[in-house]
Amino acid sequence: MGTGNQTWEREFILLGLSSDWDMQVSLFVLFLITYMVTVLGNFFIVLLIRLDSRLHTPMYFFLTNLSLVDVSYATSIIPQMLAHFLAAHKAIPFVSCAAQLFFSLGLGGIEFVLLAVMAYDRYVAVCNPLQYSVIMHGGLCARLAITSWVSGSVNSLIQTAITFQLPMCTNKYIDHISCELLAVVRLACVDTSSNEIVIMVSSIVLLMTPFCLVLLSYIQIISTILKIQSTEGRKKAFHTCASHLTVVVLCYGMAIFTYIQPRSSPSEVKGAWQKLLGQLSGFTSKLAT
């Protein structure tokens, strides 16, 4: 594919995490199990919520959305990754790469906004329980969910469009396990400073802004919990938020580390993965002996 004197590759080669065959087989098993657990776990969560009328509440409505996002996000990346672990030629067509970037980036953005929405829901439940049903009515919940899906999708559409308009020239080796935004941008044979600025701004809007909202919500929640007189009441209030807070820390922590530092080398990230996997393999071997 060409435009003028610039060449666009019809396919990209994903370098993955390791070129060692035994390691790739181990990774195939690990990610296959992870994918199956993710799909089945979220499927049963959604099914249980649908079947139990007692769970037809705002919290579980947002949890259903989050489960659908998790399954879709995993499906946008892991099946292709599994195929590449067992393939000699780890190629992905240009169109498939663009589609994977759009869906994975969009679903990631949707998840971060949903986590902020769920934090607001927990804030209302703990800090204003008597008016919870009035504030978190069905119309508001639907609008908040729609806002999450639309904001993540629009951001992804913009990012994907401007990324795949860059001239890739003869660069086709993506130093990553998937068509990840920063890894694809670095294939361009032109200055990508403006693209990295857009990525930074997008990260602030879809990562830092929801993160700040989550932080403010939990400051208010913790303040309210500390004012509760009974120990049992404090435990119950904290238990209401504990699982959501754990997910927030994991998701936002990894995303901020990845995207707020756009000039980090993909090779350094892959090297860290390889080191971690090597340590896990060694630990597993010790357990086996």
From TrEMBL:
The UniProt entry's GO CC annotations, sorted and at most eight, read: plasma membrane
Name the membrane topology term: Multi-pass membrane protein
Q: What is its main location?
A: membrane
- Keyword Membrane present in the record's keywords: the answer is yes
Which keywords, in A-to-Z order, does the entry hold?
Cell membrane, G-protein coupled receptor, Membrane, Olfaction, Receptor, Sensory transduction, Transducer, Transmembrane, Transmembrane helix
The family database entries (PROSITE patterns) matched by this protein are listed as:
G_PROTEIN_RECEP_F1_1 (PS00237), G_PROTEIN_RECEP_F1_2 (PS50262)
Keyword Translocase present in the record's keywords: the answer is no
- Function in brief: Putative odorant or sperm cell receptor.
Which species expresses this protein natively?
Answer: Ailuropoda melanoleuca
Q: What is the lineage of its organism?
A: Eukaryota, Metazoa, Chordata, Craniata, Vertebrata
**Taxonomy, superkingdom:** Eukaryota
Question: G-protein coupled receptors family 1 profile domain: from which residue to which, for each copy?
Answer: 41-252
Molecular function GO labels: G protein-coupled receptor activity; olfactory receptor activity
Protein name (database record): Olfactory receptor
Compartment annotation: Cell membrane
A Pfam family that the UniProt record links to this protein: 7tm_4
Q: Which family does it belong to?
A: Belongs to the G-protein coupled receptor 1 family.
**Which InterPro entries has this protein been placed in?**
GPCR_Rhodpsn, GPCR_Rhodpsn_7TM, Olfact_rcpt
This chain is encoded by the gene named: LOC100465341
The cross-references to PANTHER family, in alphabetical order and at most eight, read: OLFACTORY RECEPTOR
Q: Which ranges does the record mark as transmembrane?
A: 25-48, 60-78, 98-120, 197-219, 240-260
Instruction: Fetch the Gene3D superfamilies from UniProt.
Output: Rhodopsin 7-helix transmembrane proteins (1.20.1070.10)
